Amino acid sequence: MSASRRVAPHDATRPGAPPAPAILRLVQLVVLGRWRATGEQLYREVARITEAQAGQEVLVAGCGDGATVEWLARRTGASVTGVDPDGEAIERAEVRARGVVGPRGVPVHVAYQQAALDDLPHENSVFDAAIGEPAIAAARDPARAVAELLRVTKPMGSVVLLQLTWGSELSADDRELLVERLGLRPHLLVEWKRMLRDAGAVDVQVQDWTSGEPGGPSTVGAARDAADAAHLTWQQKVQIVTRSWRKWGGWRAARAAVEREMALLRDLSDERAIGFQLIKGVKWPHGRENRGDGQAPGGGRLASAGR
């Protein structure tokens, strides 16, 4: 059954009450938890396809508290720079980076900067590889954020997007609810690929990590466990009712708001609702006008290690 037939009706002409903080955390757990469950395997694959190594400069846009930056610096020896618009996240990243060392006690080379992801504070062609984490989907202009990754990457360098993608099981109303709760807007896979190509990337290839590492153990079960655990407690229901009552008034609207949140959480446990993709492109060295049809030989599905 599609989400549009299960979710309580949503009046698009009536502004919704702001979601309760507990609901924000639950939705983020269900959606982003599947991606975070891939953890080590995903980072290894990013290191492999970018060929990150000592002596190279790597950028991570939307780095948050620095988990990806720290992993890449420790495991590859590359100098890794993280950028995020959230000043508090950058502060946390800098704190966790203190005293971090690589194998055999070798210091790691990490740096952090607070900046808008669609206006990076770097010169052209300075990084050997660039990685766009899910937060670039929260930028004011995600297409420009992707173009910025290409701009700061050296010719023939790799640009990797780690992005949520819309599936087929969410209605338009449900998508808007999800965007509000995640704080970012997923796109269709074809849209992310187009952004890369429009910015000057060739050989655009994809790995589908929706169910975990391609060819590896599935994380769908873990995601469903998270969804099962993400039921609404009576305290959370009270939060929703209180906010809805203040906004709209009346028990009918408040009950509908609770039902809508519960249905959204159930629907998000379906892997068809939202996907997670690793999308890689290569910066063409001669500008977009000389790419021909914008496609390099071999574009398509990106093979993962061991397959």
Task: Describe this entry's structure for a reader.
The protein has 307 residues and is an alpha/beta fold. It has a domain at 35-214 and 271-284: Vaccinia Virus protein VP39 (Rossmann fold). Helices cover 42% and strands 18% of the residues. It is built from eleven helices and eight strands. The chain has an eight-stranded mixed sheet with strand order 3-2-1-4-5-7-6-8, sandwiched between helices. It starts with a helix and ends in a 6-residue tail after the last strand.
How is this fold's topology laid out?
Layout lengths: L2 H4 L14 H16 L2 H12 L6 E5 L5 H10 L2 E6 L2 H11 L12 E5 L12 E6 L9 H11 E14 L5 H11 L6 H11 L1 E8 L11 H10 L4 H14 L3 H18 L5 E10 L16 E2 L6
Parallel strand pairs: 1-2, 1-4, 2-3, 4-5, 6-8
Antiparallel strand pairs: 5-7, 6-7
Helix pairs in contact: 2-9, 2-11, 6-8, 10-11
| Structural class designation | alpha/beta
SSE string, helix = H, strand = E? HHHEHEHEEHEHHEHHHEE
Assembly status: single chain
CATH topology (level 3) name of the domain at 35-214 and 271-284: Rossmann fold
Q: Could you tell me the number of beta strands?
A: 8
Query: Which strand order spans the largest sheet, edge to edge or round the barrel?
Result: 3-2-1-4-5-7-6-8
Spatial shape: globular
Task: Tell me the strand percentage band.
Answer: 15-25%
CATH class of the domain at 35-214 and 271-284: Alpha Beta
Question: What is the radius of gyration computed over CA atoms, rounded to a whole number of angstroms?
Answer: 20 Å
- By DSSP (H or I, 4+ residues per run), the number of helices equals 11
Q: Which stretches are poorly predicted, pLDDT < 50 over at least 5 residues? A: 1-27, 289-298
Q: In the CATH hierarchy, what is the superfamily of the domain at 35-214 and 271-284?
A: Vaccinia Virus protein VP39
Q: Main beta sheet, described?
A: 8 strands, mixed
- How confident is the prediction overall: mean pLDDT? 76
The CATH architecture category of the domain at 35-214 and 271-284 equals 3-Layer(aba) Sandwich
Distance between the termini: 34 Å
Helix fraction by DSSP (H/I, runs of at least 4)? 40-55%
